[in-house]
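For practice. Any example?
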Amino acid sequence: MTKNNLNQRNKLENYLFKPKFDYENKPINRFEKDKIFNNKLELLKKLKSKIENLQECELKNNASKIVFGDGNTESPLMIIGEGPGQKEDELGKPFVGDAGILLNKMLAAININRKDIYITNVVNYRPPSNRKPETKEIKRYTEFLYEHVDIVKPKILILLGSTAMEAFFGSNLKISKERGVWKEILIKDITFLTMVTFHPAYLLRQGDQKKHSWIDLKEIRKKIDELKINI
């Protein structure tokens, strides 16, 4: 067989027997995604256990159960409220009382389903008599809250009410001036896009403020669309 014929034969064999399936990295990506998801759930489980093992905590001592988080842990949108109320304390889930019903309606108004977002509170136990968490309590739980955010890693953070605002930006701000403005917060070397708006419980007491919340909601929807976030 001449050298020329040998080269032609090799080319033919390469064509006939070379695998034609383009695997790329899809199976690896899927398994890697599952690994990240499972790791996230494990980290959340450990964080919850850490909070459950808190010592000398008045909130914990007066509550029925921990209210940790609820919703889609893979969501690009994370909502943070103040703390559990009576209904939340009974069921162990955030925003299931009257404020939760209003929140669901607020989200629906900008075409977001509650099940598609992730939600938690600054403090994970119901304050006695539904009082506002004290500054020392906010500071103590902020350590866990920041870890919570770092694990979920949302694209956008929505802070409901002055307690959530204080946890991220300090106690010297007024929510009436800070609401509706996009801010950035750095947590463990990651910058999170954040907006403060009124808490639904406040809106139930001050119905005339709903018009301001509607402006904030439209701005949130606008940002989601601008960033091409799928939710």
Summary: The longest strand covers residues 190-197.
